[in-house]
Amino acid sequence: MPKINKYVDIDTVERESKKDLIDRHSPFITVLGDAKKSEMLSVNVRMGQEYTHPDDFDHFIESITLFNGETKLAAASFIPGTLGNEKSHAEVTFNIRPMSNKLNLIAHGYCTKHGIWESTPVVVEVAE
Amino acid sequence: MPKINKYVDIDTVERESKKDLIDRHSPFITVLGDAKKSEMLSVNVRMGQEYTHPDDFDHFIESITLFNGETKLAAASFIPGTLGNEKSHAEVTFNIRPMSNKLNLIAHGYCTKHGIWESTPVVVEVAE
Amino acid sequence: MPKINKYVDIDTVERESKKDLIDRHSPFITVLGDAKKSEMLSVNVRMGQEYTHPDDFDHFIESITLFNGETKLAAASFIPGTLGNEKSHAEVTFNIRPMSNKLNLIAHGYCTKHGIWESTPVVVEVAE
Amino acid sequence: MPKINKYVDIDTVERESKKDLIDRHSPFITVLGDAKKSEMLSVNVRMGQEYTHPDDFDHFIESITLFNGETKLAAASFIPGTLGNEKSHAEVTFNIRPMSNKLNLIAHGYCTKHGIWESTPVVVEVAE
């Protein structure tokens, strides 16, 4: 505690409101292109795959943090209203340079009403 | 994962190096004065009680975050060198105004080498 | 641009609303105790000396950053509601270890409606 | 002070080392695609156009902040080593939803050795 809410495949969830809650709070990691050792790699993190999250002043996605295993790589913080106060996928694309053979990417998103949410890990094989 | 390392009472730990590891990475919360509803309250968070942590460029306490239950209250981020590159207790004093009858304070500290560490929770009764 | 609003002594300002605007947005730095080289030193930064600032969801002090000359020492970020949505002095106490003979402390505060505000500099003589 | 270093067209600068210093510290804003009112818009900010910046533990780009006029839209913070400790263009892509007819985008980058640097402003006409 604070509880780290973990992503659950929403196909396994029955209640529509629960699917929505889980999906819109979960960070989804997409690696853009192929990972090559010591070359720049773009990593997109987007909150929600099918469902969007409010951007209200009292209820918004305040930050997205990207980790490689235990190590923080980068973080983005957001100000409410930047997404026009409309339901949106908060999203950021970071850039990193992998130096090891494997990345174990994980993201945390923080919602000002529903706390910390953790993505499923994305294992990335890094070519030499 | 990233693992949230939780504080363990170091009196229960035998190995000196392990005591040191746990203590110097753990945030300790001290509420200064009495908590009264709607009045300003100072909350100090200090990394390490008996053992200090390096402030090296490649190994430092990068941030301290204070939560009330699931809700982030405030966060401080640090730059290596601010503590003179000497072993230190990284420390910050936040100020909050409690509006409920009880606070459930928790802090996270982040070390650039050893990841996220969580304090023991401090329950604060708030007088009317 | 973004404009860095600088503190102006409010005794020189005539209009009450302008005094209020300037004061409540200005960071005031207070060094607690004497600065000694290589010893821990607490530095308090408080927004507003005589006038308080809203803590509304759409209008709040989002961060306070402390610099020594050009160098960032530490930053604190705040979540609206932490001050009970009441007019308040947002405030944080950082801790630093001065390693030179003189500090030139400056703080920036950021208001989500009125942008960046800069304190007057505080020169601190550091004893050996 | 802290000085806000402003971008100067490096073609007007003679000394090679000065061209390098200015370019590698300056944020360059690129709006991806056309801006339409109330639709998501990606905005890339990259430090340095022709020259790259170190990612050393004691000398790195610590953050990039994007503003619309006086208003902060989003910020990214970086950990040294994320770019493999190699000279790199620190870079982030934010996403915003413009609600007015014009954006006045400005970015700040912060280098742990050379302070705050400000981009040239990018005015974006937003189609209805």
Would you give an account of this structure?
With 128 residues, chain A is mainly beta. Chain A is 8% helix and 44% strand. Chain A has one domain (4-125): SOR catalytic domain (Immunoglobulin-like), CATH 2.60.40. Chain A has one helix and nine strands; from the N terminus they run βαββββββββ. In chain A, a hairpin with a 2-residue loop joins strand 4 (61-68) and strand 5. The model of chain A has no long low-confidence stretch (mean pLDDT 95). Chains A and D meet through strand 5 and strand 6 of A and strand 5 and strand 6 of D.
* CATH topology (fold) name of chain A: Immunoglobulin-like
Question: How much beta of chain A, percentage-wise?
Answer: 35-45%
Chain pair forming the biggest interface: B-C, 29 and 30 residues
Beta-strand segment tally of chain A: 9
Features:
homotetramer, 128 residues, mainly beta, Immunoglobulin-like, 3-stranded antiparallel beta sheet, 1 helix, globular
Could you give the topology of this structure?
The structure is a homotetramer of 128-residue chains.
Chain A: E1 4-6, H1 16-25, E2 27-32, E3 41-47, E4 61-68, E5 71-78, E6 91-96, E7 102-111, E8 115-118, E9 122-125
Parallel strand pairs in A: 1-8
Antiparallel strand pairs in A: 2-3, 3-6, 4-5, 4-7, 7-8, 7-9
